[in-house]
Specification:
This is CD44 antigen. About 10% of the residues lie in helices and about 15% in strands.
Length: about 240
Protein backbone atom coordinates (compact mmCIF):
# COMPACT_ATOMS: atom_id res chain seq x y z
CA UNK A 1 0.00 0.00 0.00
CA UNK A 2 1.39 3.38 -0.99
CA UNK A 3 0.37 6.74 0.46
CA UNK A 4 1.26 9.99 -1.30
CA UNK A 5 1.33 12.90 1.15
CA UNK A 6 1.50 16.60 0.32
CA UNK A 7 3.08 19.47 2.23
CA UNK A 8 1.12 20.71 5.25
CA UNK A 9 -0.47 24.13 5.28
CA UNK A 10 -1.29 25.06 8.88
CA UNK A 11 -1.65 21.34 9.52
CA UNK A 12 -3.86 20.51 6.52
CA UNK A 13 -2.57 18.09 3.89
CA UNK A 14 -3.75 15.91 1.02
CA UNK A 15 -3.36 12.11 1.00
CA UNK A 16 -3.78 9.60 -1.82
CA UNK A 17 -3.84 5.84 -1.34
CA UNK A 18 -2.46 3.78 -4.24
CA UNK A 19 -3.15 6.60 -6.68
CA UNK A 20 -6.20 8.78 -6.90
CA UNK A 21 -9.71 8.17 -5.62
CA UNK A 22 -9.45 4.89 -3.73
CA UNK A 23 -10.80 5.88 -0.29
CA UNK A 24 -14.30 5.66 1.10
CA UNK A 25 -15.23 8.31 3.65
CA UNK A 26 -14.71 5.90 6.57
CA UNK A 27 -11.33 4.85 5.14
CA UNK A 28 -10.36 8.51 4.83
CA UNK A 29 -11.15 9.04 8.53
CA UNK A 30 -9.16 5.91 9.40
CA UNK A 31 -6.16 6.99 7.34
CA UNK A 32 -6.05 10.44 8.91
CA UNK A 33 -6.07 8.79 12.36
CA UNK A 34 -3.14 6.60 11.32
CA UNK A 35 -1.26 9.79 10.40
CA UNK A 36 -1.86 11.30 13.86
CA UNK A 37 -4.51 13.58 12.37
CA UNK A 38 -8.23 13.98 11.93
CA UNK A 39 -10.29 14.51 8.82
CA UNK A 40 -10.08 18.22 8.06
CA UNK A 41 -13.10 20.43 8.54
CA UNK A 42 -14.13 22.84 5.81
CA UNK A 43 -12.96 25.81 7.89
CA UNK A 44 -9.54 24.25 8.47
CA UNK A 45 -9.19 23.62 4.75
CA UNK A 46 -10.21 27.20 3.94
CA UNK A 47 -7.48 28.55 6.23
CA UNK A 48 -4.93 26.32 4.49
CA UNK A 49 -6.25 27.47 1.11
CA UNK A 50 -5.71 31.11 2.11
CA UNK A 51 -2.06 30.23 2.76
CA UNK A 52 -1.65 28.77 -0.74
CA UNK A 53 -2.98 25.22 -0.47
CA UNK A 54 -4.18 24.05 -3.88
CA UNK A 55 -4.69 20.65 -5.49
CA UNK A 56 -6.45 19.12 -8.47
CA UNK A 57 -8.05 16.35 -6.44
CA UNK A 58 -11.50 15.76 -5.01
CA UNK A 59 -11.07 14.78 -1.37
CA UNK A 60 -13.12 14.23 1.76
CA UNK A 61 -13.41 16.82 4.50
CA UNK A 62 -16.01 16.67 7.26
CA UNK A 63 -19.39 16.78 5.53
CA UNK A 64 -18.13 17.57 2.01
CA UNK A 65 -16.07 16.52 -0.98
CA UNK A 66 -13.94 19.46 -2.15
CA UNK A 67 -11.08 20.74 -4.29
CA UNK A 68 -9.11 23.81 -3.09
CA UNK A 69 -8.25 25.91 -6.15
CA UNK A 70 -6.27 29.14 -6.53
CA UNK A 71 -5.41 29.20 -10.21
CA UNK A 72 -8.23 28.49 -12.66
CA UNK A 73 -7.63 25.42 -14.83
CA UNK A 74 -10.24 23.73 -16.99
CA UNK A 75 -9.45 20.20 -15.78
CA UNK A 76 -9.56 21.15 -12.11
CA UNK A 77 -12.98 21.97 -10.60
CA UNK A 78 -14.22 23.06 -14.02
CA UNK A 79 -12.01 26.16 -14.04
CA UNK A 80 -13.39 27.44 -10.73
CA UNK A 81 -11.35 28.96 -7.93
CA UNK A 82 -11.92 28.95 -4.19
CA UNK A 83 -12.88 25.89 -2.19
CA UNK A 84 -15.06 24.09 -4.72
CA UNK A 85 -17.65 21.73 -3.25
CA UNK A 86 -18.87 18.70 -5.14
CA UNK A 87 -22.65 18.36 -4.81
CA UNK A 88 -23.16 14.95 -6.43
CA UNK A 89 -21.61 11.48 -6.05
CA UNK A 90 -20.31 12.47 -2.61
CA UNK A 91 -20.60 8.89 -1.32
CA UNK A 92 -18.15 7.60 -3.93
CA UNK A 93 -14.39 7.10 -3.47
CA UNK A 94 -12.04 10.09 -3.32
CA UNK A 95 -8.83 11.21 -1.62
CA UNK A 96 -8.54 12.62 1.92
CA UNK A 97 -7.72 16.00 3.43
CA UNK A 98 -6.29 15.49 6.90
CA UNK A 99 -5.51 17.96 9.70
CA UNK A 100 -2.73 17.71 12.28
CA UNK A 101 -3.51 20.09 15.15
CA UNK A 102 0.11 20.05 16.38
CA UNK A 103 1.41 21.48 13.10
CA UNK A 104 1.13 25.27 13.44
CA UNK A 105 3.56 26.42 10.75
CA UNK A 106 2.07 28.09 7.69
CA UNK A 107 3.74 25.59 5.40
CA UNK A 108 6.08 22.66 5.88
CA UNK A 109 7.19 19.88 3.59
CA UNK A 110 9.15 17.93 6.19
CA UNK A 111 8.58 14.20 5.70
CA UNK A 112 6.16 12.04 7.65
CA UNK A 113 8.31 9.11 8.74
CA UNK A 114 5.74 6.59 9.90
CA UNK A 115 2.14 5.89 10.76
CA UNK A 116 0.06 3.88 13.21
CA UNK A 117 -0.87 0.67 11.40
CA UNK A 118 -3.01 -0.52 14.34
CA UNK A 119 -5.92 1.65 13.15
CA UNK A 120 -5.68 0.46 9.53
CA UNK A 121 -7.41 -2.59 8.13
CA UNK A 122 -4.49 -3.26 5.80
CA UNK A 123 -1.54 -4.70 7.70
CA UNK A 124 0.60 -5.39 4.64
CA UNK A 125 3.67 -3.50 3.47
CA UNK A 126 3.16 0.28 3.52
CA UNK A 127 5.23 2.92 1.75
CA UNK A 128 4.88 6.62 2.54
CA UNK A 129 5.81 8.91 -0.36
CA UNK A 130 6.47 12.39 1.00
CA UNK A 131 6.31 15.72 -0.77
CA UNK A 132 10.06 16.22 -0.42
CA UNK A 133 10.70 12.98 -2.33
CA UNK A 134 11.64 10.86 0.69
CA UNK A 135 10.09 7.42 1.20
CA UNK A 136 9.50 5.55 4.47
CA UNK A 137 7.99 2.32 5.66
CA UNK A 138 5.25 2.49 8.28
CA UNK A 139 7.79 1.68 11.03
CA UNK A 140 9.94 4.70 10.14
CA UNK A 141 12.56 2.89 8.06
CA UNK A 142 13.76 5.17 5.27
CA UNK A 143 13.78 3.60 1.81
CA UNK A 144 16.40 4.28 -0.80
CA UNK A 145 15.64 6.47 -3.77
CA UNK A 146 13.09 9.20 -4.18
CA UNK A 147 9.37 8.85 -4.71
CA UNK A 148 7.87 9.12 -8.17
CA UNK A 149 6.20 12.36 -7.06
CA UNK A 150 9.41 14.38 -7.02
CA UNK A 151 11.76 15.76 -9.62
CA UNK A 152 11.93 18.54 -12.16
CA UNK A 153 9.77 16.70 -14.67
CA UNK A 154 6.86 16.95 -12.26
CA UNK A 155 7.33 20.61 -11.45
CA UNK A 156 4.12 22.65 -11.34
CA UNK A 157 1.75 19.72 -11.72
CA UNK A 158 0.94 18.40 -8.30
CA UNK A 159 -0.15 18.76 -4.74
CA UNK A 160 2.14 20.41 -2.28
CA UNK A 161 5.72 19.15 -2.47
CA UNK A 162 8.84 21.26 -2.76
CA UNK A 163 8.26 20.94 -6.49
CA UNK A 164 4.49 21.37 -6.03
CA UNK A 165 3.88 17.79 -7.07
CA UNK A 166 1.44 14.95 -6.54
CA UNK A 167 0.36 12.33 -9.08
CA UNK A 168 -2.51 13.68 -11.09
CA UNK A 169 -4.78 12.70 -13.93
CA UNK A 170 -2.80 11.43 -16.90
CA UNK A 171 -4.80 13.69 -19.17
CA UNK A 172 -3.33 16.77 -17.45
CA UNK A 173 0.02 17.64 -19.00
CA UNK A 174 3.12 18.51 -17.01
CA UNK A 175 3.06 22.00 -18.49
CA UNK A 176 -0.26 22.76 -16.81
CA UNK A 177 -0.53 25.65 -14.32
CA UNK A 178 0.95 25.28 -10.88
CA UNK A 179 -1.35 23.84 -8.24
CA UNK A 180 0.38 25.58 -5.34
CA UNK A 181 2.18 28.66 -4.19
CA UNK A 182 0.06 31.46 -5.64
CA UNK A 183 -1.00 34.39 -3.49
CA UNK A 184 -3.71 35.35 -5.96
CA UNK A 185 -6.87 36.52 -4.16
CA UNK A 186 -9.57 33.88 -4.27
CA UNK A 187 -13.35 33.89 -4.13
CA UNK A 188 -15.12 31.12 -2.27
CA UNK A 189 -17.92 29.66 -4.28
CA UNK A 190 -21.29 28.88 -2.72
CA UNK A 191 -22.63 25.35 -2.40
CA UNK A 192 -23.85 23.90 -5.69
CA UNK A 193 -27.28 22.37 -5.96
CA UNK A 194 -27.96 19.47 -8.26
CA UNK A 195 -30.12 20.00 -11.28
CA UNK A 196 -31.12 16.35 -11.44
CA UNK A 197 -29.23 13.21 -12.37
CA UNK A 198 -25.47 13.62 -12.64
CA UNK A 199 -25.57 16.98 -14.35
CA UNK A 200 -26.19 20.24 -12.55
CA UNK A 201 -27.98 23.28 -13.94
CA UNK A 202 -26.43 26.70 -13.32
CA UNK A 203 -28.57 29.54 -12.08
CA UNK A 204 -28.50 32.63 -14.26
CA UNK A 205 -28.70 36.27 -13.28
CA UNK A 206 -31.11 38.79 -14.69
CA UNK A 207 -28.93 39.25 -17.79
CA UNK A 208 -28.93 35.51 -18.48
CA UNK A 209 -25.17 35.37 -18.15
CA UNK A 210 -23.02 33.26 -15.85
CA UNK A 211 -19.76 34.55 -14.46
CA UNK A 212 -17.26 31.82 -13.51
CA UNK A 213 -15.85 33.77 -10.56
CA UNK A 214 -18.75 35.76 -9.17
CA UNK A 215 -19.43 34.83 -5.52
CA UNK A 216 -23.09 35.74 -5.97
CA UNK A 217 -23.87 33.21 -8.68
CA UNK A 218 -24.18 29.48 -8.20
CA UNK A 219 -22.20 27.56 -10.78
CA UNK A 220 -22.23 23.91 -11.69
CA UNK A 221 -20.16 21.39 -13.57
CA UNK A 222 -21.14 18.88 -16.16
CA UNK A 223 -20.98 15.18 -15.37
CA UNK A 224 -17.57 15.00 -17.05
CA UNK A 225 -16.06 16.90 -14.12
CA UNK A 226 -16.68 13.91 -11.89
CA UNK A 227 -13.87 11.36 -11.45
CA UNK A 228 -13.89 8.47 -13.92
CA UNK A 229 -13.61 4.96 -12.58
CA UNK A 230 -11.50 3.69 -15.47
CA UNK A 231 -8.69 6.12 -14.67
CA UNK A 232 -9.55 8.61 -17.40
CA UNK A 233 -10.53 12.15 -16.66
CA UNK A 234 -12.44 13.98 -19.34
CA UNK A 235 -12.20 17.68 -19.88
CA UNK A 236 -14.73 19.53 -17.79
CA UNK A 237 -16.84 22.43 -18.93
CA UNK A 238 -19.15 25.05 -17.55
CA UNK A 239 -22.47 26.20 -18.91
Amino acid sequence: TEFNISCRYRGVFHVEKNGRYSLTRSEAVELCRALNSTLSTLEQLKKAHELGFETCRYGFVVGYVVIPRINPYHLCAANHTGVYKLSANTSDRYDAYCYNATETREKTCEPIEGLDTSVLDNQGEIVIDNADGSRYNADGTRLSGESSTSGADDENVGSGSTHDTTPMDTSIKRSSPSYYGSSTPVSHLPDHSSGGGEKESPKKDSDNEVSPVSPDISLATTADDFPEKDGRHYSASTS
